[in-house]
Structure formats: C-alpha cells, structure tokens
Design brief:
The protein has 8 helices and no strands. By secondary structure, the protein is mostly helical.
C-alpha cells in the first residue's frame, strides 16, 4: 500500500498554518474535512516526535496542534499513543497553551529548576516513539487504513 494518507495531508498542506498561532490554526483547520484534519494532525505529530522527540514537537510551531493530534491518534486506531501524548501535555498545565512562547517558557523554566542536562518529558519520550512505530501496525499502516475507509 502506498502512502494513501498523504493525499489527504497534501490537500491541506498549504491551507492550514501551524506557524501563525492558535486562532489562525483553528480557523483554517476547521475548514478541512474530517479525514484531512485527522491525518494532518497525526502526520505532523509523528513526524516531529520521531525527528526530535516530544521536546521538538512541543517547542516548535507544531505544538499548536497537540490537542488535535491526541484526537487524531484515537481516530486512526492508536489510543495508547494518544494517551501518552495527552499525559505529556499535562506538563504544560490547563488549558494547554496553543501559544508557542508559552510552551517555550515552561520548558525554559524546567531547565532553570532542573539543570541544562535534564530532559523535560523524558518519561514519555520512548513510550510515545515506540507507540508511533508499533501500535496497531505503526503510524503509516494505521494512517493508510484510516485514509482507505469509506
């Protein structure tokens, strides 16, 4: 099976911005189809997490879509991955900060309190990466199966 899921992501790649803050993201995201939203969020999350861990995901603009990524992983059949990301999000408090600078400030505060060698969210890093690669056949299989559903 090819990466069928990517067709849904590519269709909204240039129309949903993760770079312009929470309000813009939510407004643009709301205009996509359900499959586009689910696959866009799950794609960004897995891509960032596998590339640079949860720290990269949450400190980069992609962190704006963390709540949507949790929902997306549930919908593509990866509830354990969703739960692990949701647990990691608790680091940032409630409500979850869509604003990147708010997330960066909390991460910086962690380093001040725990030292530069400490790793925020360390307890979730390997769990989330393993779930992305293995749960329900892994992200790519799960995403493609979801994309293929009628």
């Amino acid at each position: 099976m090819s990466d069928l899921y990517w067709d849904f992501v590519e269709a909204v790649w240039d129309t949903i911005s993760i770079y312009d803050g929470g309000d813009t993201f939510i407004e643009q995201y709301s205009k996509a189809t359900e499959k586009q939203k689910v696959l866009f969020s799950a794609h960004w999350a897995q891509s960032e997490i596998l590339n640079g861990g949860l720290g990269q995901f949450f400190s980069n603009p992609t962190g704006v879509l963390a709540p949507e990524a949790v929902e997306a992983f549930i919908k593509i059949g990866m509830p354990e991955c969703a739960e692990s990301i949701s647990n990691a999000m608790k680091f940032f408090g409630k409500p979850y900060p869509r604003d990147r600078s708010g997330r960066e400030n909390l991460i910086e505060q962690f380093y001040v309190e725990n030292g530069d060698d400490a790793i925020p969210l360390e307890e979730y890093e390997n769990i989330v990466a393993d779930k992305i690669e293995e749960e329900n056949g892994g992200f790519w299989e799960s995403a493609n199966l979801y994309a293929a559903q009628g």
